[in-house]
Amino acid sequence: MAQSNGNKESAEDDNLCQMLADLKVRTSALEVQGAERDSMTKTTAELLKAYDDNLLKLTCGPVMRTDRESSEVMDEISENPVDFDLVVKDFKDRLVSAGVNNGHPTFFGFINAGGGTYPASLGAFVPAALATYSGAHLGNAEAVQMENRLIKWVADLFGYPAGHAGNISSGGSLATLTTLAVARDSRELKAADFHRCVVYCSEFTHYAVQKGLRAVGMREAILRNTPVDKALKMTAAALERQINEDKEAGLLPFLVVATVGTTLTGSVDPVNDIADVCDRHQLWLHVDAAYGGFFALCDEMKQLFSGVERSDSIVVNPHKGLFTSGGVGVLVVKEGEKLQQCCSLEQTFNFFKGHSIFSAENVSPSELSFELTRPFRGAQMWLPLKVFGVGVFRTALEEKLLLARYFHRKLKETGEFELPLEPELSVVVFRATVPPGVDINNFNQQLLDDLISDGKIFITPAVFSDQYYLRVCVLCFKTHIEHIDMCFSLIVEKRGHLWKSSR
Amino acid sequence: MAQSNGNKESAEDDNLCQMLADLKVRTSALEVQGAERDSMTKTTAELLKAYDDNLLKLTCGPVMRTDRESSEVMDEISENPVDFDLVVKDFKDRLVSAGVNNGHPTFFGFINAGGGTYPASLGAFVPAALATYSGAHLGNAEAVQMENRLIKWVADLFGYPAGHAGNISSGGSLATLTTLAVARDSRELKAADFHRCVVYCSEFTHYAVQKGLRAVGMREAILRNTPVDKALKMTAAALERQINEDKEAGLLPFLVVATVGTTLTGSVDPVNDIADVCDRHQLWLHVDAAYGGFFALCDEMKQLFSGVERSDSIVVNPHKGLFTSGGVGVLVVKEGEKLQQCCSLEQTFNFFKGHSIFSAENVSPSELSFELTRPFRGAQMWLPLKVFGVGVFRTALEEKLLLARYFHRKLKETGEFELPLEPELSVVVFRATVPPGVDINNFNQQLLDDLISDGKIFITPAVFSDQYYLRVCVLCFKTHIEHIDMCFSLIVEKRGHLWKSSR
């Protein structure tokens, strides 16, 4: 019987080996190598190059194509393979024709960094191909060190001392969510008190704060819109008044968000004055520098960043002012252990703790963030910073600042536009004056429609104080003086047409 | 005077134009084009190819190199540029030699998908280079549609009906965080009650749940470890007992997490039985299928997924069972409006609402997630699914299942190993038997050290019930029968040596 069982097992083993040999052959398609790999690389590189070479011929505004032919093979996810060249070409064609063109130098909407320099795009590619895991020291100590060096570089830029800690997230929203959680936990707030907690913003603070509060369980918390001055900056005196009132009412003020470069107008809150208030009342000061942060590289901007070094946390987005591809945000918390206390469960690979392969003196990134696995995002900062050097980023940001001022001056010189704010960073807000009897909001709304209708430029509205303004944000690394000139001419021209037809 | 001012302004304008022309020249380095671009592409592709071609010569375990020479130029972020070829080569050399080699076919640690097929890596590269923004329909309607199609494909795989909604996050942790927030909000829990809320897991549930609870403000909530049976599966009867007791004690049970493929042992909780309990008590049922989810593609696995269609939410990680590069997780919520209610502030580009370029009937991804900007992660799923077709993924996953069984059988046939569990998915847990009088835990801990010391294979411990086991997780798409044979031989050999020296 034993013998017979042995034979049976042996036959089963043989059968299993045969099946596995067969399966290996059938799955070999997944292991792209040799000529096939070369061909894929070539096709991809050529398509990307063609996109880049033809960029100026493309529209930059949102295009809602309805004429694209649908094909079952391409639309449905199906059992069988489709030719690589066809897939990548279709993929590129769809993406390029389907919306806003973030990479375009006359895309002045939102906050547009140009879609990433080529080395930044390679920084998304290389770690993906190398399978780099940067969530733990055990995973890749060098990748973790590179990220820590990048975080330190950002911390140094804002004058944070040693002892800070941070993480590289997918962007400002997650970074904000995380810092809200850290601020919440560092104050040892009990959930039962969340409804009494007060967060202070201005109406120009990014709504990532409100969204983040929901995420971290503080939907019931009170979000105050602190009054702003004429330059749309949060006023420290009004802030302090609110805090005092809230304290008297038995509420729990705990967090102030100051913005260095609001999304809508680029206004910079007076961080130093706000820091004084936070000091007096022992509130967590968070600085949202998602948009404006890297302008700190420019010497003449230093005074705008005065007081940022006094904050408890900063968010700055490399996919904005550092021209990385989308999806790279940096959070730095001054007292690093607070970030760790909030995020760490000390369970990351803890079965290896004490083992020689585990470097116990280092905190792993996954203990400083709510993410465990994530792409090695630092690569998208590291490669361009090394390849280009910091200097050219500084110069490019100086150029953007100057372009905004140049654009502002040109509009002003025409005498045909209202310019409610001097640009502090690279956002210019304006609206056309109107013929007597014409509604200024309607006129400018129509002007916006006319301006973006053919996709030559893309700009957005900026509505505040019930007034409709237009907004140009200059941040794309490809934007130069000729693009501003083109934008200016188009605005003057369309405004002229509209003026005539409105009289 | 007016004339003189005009002259002065004109002179200033000229000066500004000259400065801007100069700045354009100085920042042109950022716009990589033509031959320089070709050269960067070539260098990068060659390095990645060299890595892939030499993969089998590399170690797969964690290497803590201390001998690497530091260089100021490469380590510090400096003002000046460094040659591209040098930067990329250094970058690759550091990353490849610095930790675990996730792409290696004999890396059996953690849950290793092989680091991404080549088209998946290109899927990280292409949208970065095309500057695709997939957070809003306005940004790129086609990218958003592709992601929705992918989410629907996942939803279909698990039998979810229409009405679902989801998002593609950076991985399981963020997806879990999000579903915890949705479950919390859908129950309209007040923060004051968070300390009475109860979440039910087993001790084998991933700690992303505990970490996520902290993130969403529910640090005070009660996390129950529901007892498991001999196969380490959560037991529905014990779960119901706990729920009843908690209800009687005035607590608020609200969420059960069932795992389809635990990280440690690959055990699958009895989802159908658990769903019965959740139905009776009106609890949110979340299924963590981060590891095991895509095994649902295999016909013979269908019964393991029975009941998953009854859950309220599912997380599954394409960077595991779908062999994408790291950083791609899918969350699907059955009642999609609950996800939207939790995440949406309806402020995404709301200044364009009602405008013809805004497609109002579509919900934007940024209203279904806590992220606003993020990379177009869907590309890493889309390209490989199209290029390879679904069929070969199915086959590859069948191969992994069979490899695990093959490995299990081989260990069993030696008579030298204890195998406490039949592998349900692709994790095999085992330990060596020991000579009389030798501590079995110590022996196996030593065996692990011996096994991973030279980096030929990488496996992890699996400690449960105070017993030290070894664990092999088969999931890398490059792993075939010869790699399992190699692993098996090494284990038998090292175990033999250790046995001799222990007697």
Number of domains in the coordinates of chain A? 2
Average pLDDT rating of chain A: 92
Counting DSSP E segments of at least 2 residues, the number of strands of chain A comes to: 11
Radius of gyration of chain A: 27 Å
Oligomer: homodimer
Q: What's the CATH architecture of the largest domain in chain A?
A: 3-Layer(aba) Sandwich
At the first level of CATH, the class of the largest domain in chain A is Alpha Beta
CATH superfamily of the largest domain in chain A: Type I PLP-dependent aspartate aminotransferase-like (Major domain)
Percent helix among the residues of chain A?
40-55%
Give the H and E element order of chain A.
HHHHHHEHEHEHEHEEHEHHHEEHEEH
Broad structural category of chain A = alpha/beta
Write down the CATH topology of the largest domain in chain A.
Aspartate Aminotransferase, domain 2
Shape of chain A: globular
The biggest sheet of chain A amounts to:
7 strands, mixed
Number of helical segments with 4 or more residues of chain A: 16
Modified residues (N6-(pyridoxal phosphate)lysine) (chains A, B): 320
Keywords (chains A, B): Decarboxylase, Lyase, Pyridoxal phosphate
GO molecular function (chains A, B): carboxy-lyase activity; pyridoxal phosphate binding
Pfam family, one (chains A, B): Pyridoxal_deC
Explain how this protein is built.
2 copies of one chain form a homodimer. Chain A is α/β, with parallel strands linked by helices and 503 residues long. The first copy, chain A, folds into 2 domains: 122-379, Type I PLP-dependent aspartate aminotransferase-like (Major domain) (Aspartate Aminotransferase, domain 2, 3-Layer(aba) Sandwich), CATH 3.40.640.10; 391-502, Aspartate Aminotransferase, domain 1 (Alpha-Beta Complex). Helix content of chain A is 44%, strand content 11%. In chain A, the strands form 2 sheets. A 7-stranded mixed β-sheet of chain A has the order 1-7-6-5-4-2-3, with helices on both faces. In chain A, strands 8-9-11-10 form a 4-stranded antiparallel β-sheet. The termini of chain A are far apart.
